[in-house]
Design goal:
It is a single chain. The N terminus is likely disordered. The chain has a single domain, classed as Roll (Nuclear Transport Factor 2, Chain: A). Strands 1, 2, 3, 4, 5 and 6 form a 6-stranded mixed β-sheet that branches. Strand 3 and strand 4 form a beta hairpin. By secondary structure, it is an alpha+beta fold.
């Protein structure tokens, strides 16, 4: 289980050295955009609120601290990249691709920068919970 969690975190880190952000909301697109926005703002607590972990992973000692550390490292890389490119100009989400049961979705988020013609693109996986859409690790 821990290997799977670490693989999920590493996937996020790779994807979000390019992008990040989201909030438990009404649509996966809005949550994905918010997630990326929070990453670039450096809001680790906000990012953590948007992530859903399996109960068996969430309840393990040290998992939240480890996840917070990985998120902070990811945010530092994202912020450094944005600073070098003149800051974030826009964050947009393409329409979600849903699973057959509509409980999972994937959203492509594009981050454009003020002084760069090369946008960052990330694919964000989400899961529908009782609290709305959450980032799925």
């Amino acid at each position: 289980m821990m290997k799977r969690l670490l693989a999920g975190i590493l996937s996020l880190l790779m994807a979000f050295s390019l992008a990040a952000c989201g909030s438990g909301g009404s649509s996966p697109e809005k949550v994905a955009e918010r997630y990326v926005e929070l990453v670039y703002k450096g809001d680790a607590d906000g990012v953590l609120k948007l992530i859903v972990l399996k109960p068996e992973e969430r309840d393990k000692p040290g998992v939240e601290d480890m996840l917070r550390g990985k998120i902070k490292a990811m945010m530092a890389k994202a912020q450094e990249k944005a600073d070098k490119a003149g800051g974030v100009k826009d964050i947009t989400a393409a329409p979600a691709n849903y699973s057959e049961d509509k409980q999972r979705a994937a959203v492509q988020v594009t981050v454009t920068f003020k002084k760069s013609d090369t946008p960052d693109v990330a694919r964000i996986r989400l899961f529908h919970t009782d609290d709305g859409w959450k980032i799925n690790l």
